[in-house]
Amino acid sequence: MARAYNFNAGPAAIPLEVLQQAQEQFVDYHGAGMSIMEMSHRSALYEDVNNEAQSLMRELFGIPNNYKVMFLQGGASTQFAMLPMNLLREGQPAAYVHTGAWADKAIKEAKLIGETVIAASTADDKFMRVPSLSEIVVPANASYLHLTSNETIGGTQFQEFPDTGNIPLIADMSSDILSRPVDVSKFGVIYAGAQKNLGPSGVTVVIMREDLAQGSPKSIPAMFRYETHAKAKSLYNTPPSFSVYMVSLVLKWIKAKGGVAQMEQYNRDKTKLIYDAIDGSGGFYKGCADAKSRSVMNITFRLGSEELENQFVKESEQQGFVGLKGHRDVGGLRASTYNAVPLESCQALAQFMKDFQQRNG
Ligand SMILES: *Cc1c(COP(=O)(O)O)cnc(C)c1O
């Protein structure tokens, strides 16, 4: 079987070992005579999966005890709405750092719920950088500050996070969660759709400080209240059980690889191969993001013409590469190098880039 060199942005690569393990357990999960998808979410076997996924998440990400770990549905996009519904208070604006396409979507949803302010924006630089911490201005009465730790489409990433004191810091980490160690205690909420770095689509991880998960306004329907899910250990209604199970396997895989600090080193090694190919090309390839803001997860770059970019995509596909076309909103090329993308794929891509340049440079 030939596995593709998968650089998809999301849904994205899942470790081969995880897929094989799921395949082994697919028809008969732990001798139950049925698959995990066919059993009650109230069964002991599924409760173990749910508990294990939560505790591995805590262990690997160093989540303090006063935080809840929830597995919700509706993707990160639903969090764009749920967060202001639950946490945006009257007379206390929600502050947002505007760094690109995903931040923009989060801001638009919050505006439907209440007052918002832009704490910093890099629109003037076409979102090709993240702001420095000193550029971020948060009103003293803000309900929270929201930022996007990694802009999946533009290819920028925060390397450090602001200290917001008593104001909860909220981060959309959909495209870089568990790619590097993070001091979770600096955050009120961290959330991520699973389909980039954690497994398949269908489940969203929400890590929330306990005090924030309490006291959701009573006017919000049950499914949209964090309180509901926190109290029920993410078993209020039928959970996306197969997706949670897959996340638990991915977490075990990360643990076996040595944990999140190891992942970071591995990711930096992978990314360096491709950024070096860009920087060493004498201008044939041009990186999109400012050097200091470059993402370790999504590498965006361009060629001299759109025609040449199309040719790059076409030839890459012929050689077994998938997902290198940039997002339709920004064009160009993009390689997503999430945790599960093997070093070998990045070596192959760097080599392909050099060969392509030689043929066309
Ligand atoms: C993919 C992505 C989202 C959207 O996730 P869905 O699960 O499709 O709603 C939000 N934020 C970021 C940073 C993303 O990369």
From TrEMBL:
GO terms for molecular function: O-phospho-L-serine:2-oxoglutarate aminotransferase activity; pyridoxal phosphate binding. This is Phosphoserine aminotransferase. Its main location: cytoplasm. One of its GO terms (biological process) is L-serine biosynthetic process. Gene3D superfamilies: Aspartate Aminotransferase, domain 1, Type I PLP-dependent aspartate aminotransferase-like (Major domain). HAMAP family: SerC_aminotrans_5 (MF_00160). SUPFAM superfamilies: PLP-dependent transferases. Homodimer.
